[in-house]
Predict the structure.
Amino acid sequence: MPRFAKRKKEAAPEPEEEEKEIKEEEIQEEPPSIEAESKEEPARAERKKLSPFEQKLNNLFAFVFGRIPFVQRMFFVHHLQIMVKAGLSIVAALKILEAEIENKKLKIIAGEVRQGVERGKQLSEYMSA
């Protein structure tokens, strides 16, 4: 039978030494005080408030570059379809939808479509654009 030589194991660092180092680091770090946090909160709130000009600028930017959500577009077309099937004229259905829509951009578009249809243009011309 072969004989195995016993080797000496290298001593691993004691876990107690590592724990002591971690504890010393934790002691050196001071937790943030409650007073410091409460002083930062009002400053954050003040930064978030926009002037009336900035609010108007944000609204304009959102209106010009914002998109109408897909769900709202689908509801618009579905409600238009239901009203036309119920016997309302397209112009009357568009007037009702224009009055009921909350999205400003969609409301303006519905008004433009209604005005175009009243002038004699085809609905499909406005819906494709």
Notes: Residues 70-85 form the longest helix (16 residues). The radius of gyration is 35 Å. The chain has seven helices and no strands. The chain has a mean pLDDT of 75.
